[in-house]
Design goal:
Elements lengths: L2 E3 L5 E8 L4 E5 L4 E2 L1 E3 L15 E3 L26
Antiparallel strand pairs: 1-4, 1-6, 2-3, 2-5
């Protein structure tokens, strides 16, 4: 599950790995990260319990062309309205 970092400064979390880079987690304000606790660091909670994290908002799915409402039909040339 991705989490939104709400801190006001860049922060490095050496006990956690960024799943996107497979490196230690370096969180920047407003960034969204999927993370795992580093093995051997003990049972760390995900996300870190420092009050700077919240679940990332789930993007809304866009309607596909097939789901979109069709445009109303217009009379063909020569048809009486």
């Amino acid at each position: 599950m991705p989490y939104l970092y709400t801190g006001t400064e860049v922060r490095t979390y050496t006990g956690y790995r960024d799943q996107g880079t497979d490196r230690p987690l370096v969180a920047a304000p407003g960034g969204t990260y999927a993370m795992t606790a580093v093995q051997g660091a003990g049972p760390l909670p995900v996300p870190p319990p420092d009050g700077r994290w919240r679940p990332a908002p789930v993007p809304r799915a866009r309607k596909s062309a097939a789901q979109a409402k069709p445009a109303p039909a217009t009379p063909a040339e020569g048809d009486k309205a």
